[in-house]
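Hey Z.,

So I finally got round to the molybdenum atom thing we talked about over coffee. Here's the setup:
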Amino acid sequence: MSIRKIFTGALGLDAESIVKDAQKELKAPARRLFGKRILTLGGLAMLSGCDLTNDKSVNAMLRKMSSFNDDAQALLFDPNKLAPTYPESMITRPFPFNAFYDIDEVPEVDASTYRLQVGGLAKGQRVWTLEELRALPQESQVTRHICIEGWSAIGKWGGVRFADFLKRSGADTTAKYVAFHCADNYSTSIDMPTALHAQTLLTLTYDGQVLPPKYGFPMKLRMPTKLGYKNPKHIVSITVTNDYPGGYWENQGYNWFGGS
Ligand SMILES: Nc1nc2c(c(=O)[nH]1)N[C@H]1C(S)=C(S)[C@@H](COP(=O)(O)O)O[C@H]1N2
Ligand SMILES: [Mo]
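And the result:
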């Protein structure tokens, strides 16, 4: 009898389906790191530190597999590697709209009363008006936005380098996470290395015009190194923290790191 059969028999668990579930949890980057070791129950037990003696420990192991994805993506993320940029002639027109609601429910944010709040581990300016944000040095980029729902489009966004903004807000850049809360109650969060990446922009314009409501007025954090759902629109508050913040889609099972 094979070791795997003995193992399975003794535990009353179906090794093959557990291994299959674990593999489903692991997307490409984690698989690249762990290679063939994850193909056995013993390997899974070793990797996760779970004993796999009951359903509860198997579930705990599967949850760990999902966070291995985040760890693997974070490990493979090169903070100095730039995402591709494109000529303006390649901009997708019209650029698609997407949100967890229809376009007629896009929030209307009042520019005159709008304030961007910075909270958590930050010792500098904690409240920003739009005028103050517009007065900071601006740059623009033409990059590809990739949505997990199966479309991608090239657009041009302009705004403040997020690393610069964090510095001016006195953010503790040794913290693990930056979390975003939005006017439509959307939320997401990112790792600090991505927050500090040179192409991560707090954007105020789209295609040279003030960012229209559908694309996130008054601002969208644009990261060409991350999938669409990690790019929050209508941001109203930013929190620097060491406590895992999750997010709207992340809490429903989307991969947290969300690199493209
Ligand atoms: N506030 C907020 N930000 C959001 C979303 C949302 O529903 N609300 N959807 C995300 C998703 S899934 C995508 S693909 C992009 C779409 O941005 P766009 O409308 O500018 O194309 O916004 C992201 N940011
Ligand atoms: Mo998306």
